[in-house]
Amino acid sequence: MSATDDYDYLFKIVLIGDSGVGKSNLLLRFHKNEFNGGQRETIGVEFATKTIEFDNVHVKAQVWDTAGQERYRAVTSAFYRGSLGALLVYDITRHDSFRNAERWLSELREYAGEDCIVMLVGNKSDLRHLRAVSAEEAKAFSENSRLSFIETSAKDSTNVETAFTRIIKEIYHRRK
Ligand code: GDP
Ligand code: MG
Hints:
This protein is of the alpha/beta class. It has 6 helices and 6 strands; from the N terminus they run βαββαβααβαβα.
C-alpha cells in the first residue's frame, strides 16, 4: 500500500453511555494520546479516525462521540446509523451509570441493529479506591447480553488502545 491514508475497511464505531463516564476522554486518548482532566465538559469532536494495521489489512476506525446530548437522552438515530461497533461505557465509581447501560444497549439495538458489535467498557479503573461496580458484576451482565468486557482508564491509558483494537478486530472477523 502506498499512500498512508489508504485503507481496506472503514468501520464506524460509536461511543455511548451516560454523561461524565469518560467517552470523550477515551476518544482523546485513542486519537491523540491526550487526557483532559478539567471539570469542564470536554469539547467533543463529532468523530475522529485512526487507521490500524493487522493481518496485512488496514482498517480505518471512524469513532463517533456524542456532543453532550446524551445528558438529555436525545441521541438521534443518525448518530447510530451504520455503526458496526459500539463501546458502551460506564464509570466504575458510579453504579447508576452501570445500571443505565441496559437502556443504552436497547437504544443501540433499536437504531444500529442486532449485528452491531458491542463492548462493555468500565472506565476510570484508576479510581480503584472509589469503585462501586465490581468487575464480576459487570462481567455477568456482559455475558448475559453477549458483549465483550474490559476495564479502562483514559487517565492513565490502561487498556484504551486494547479496547479499540479488540473491537476493530472483532468487527473484522465477524465480517469475514
Ligand atoms: P463524557 O461526558 O462521557 O464524554 O466524559 P468526559 O470524557 O468529558 O469525562 C468526564 C470527567 O471524567 C472529566 O472530568 C474527565 O477528566 C474525567 N475522566 C474521564 N476519564 C477518566 C478516567 O479514566 N479516570 C479518571 N480519574 N477520570 C476520568
Ligand atoms: Mg463527552
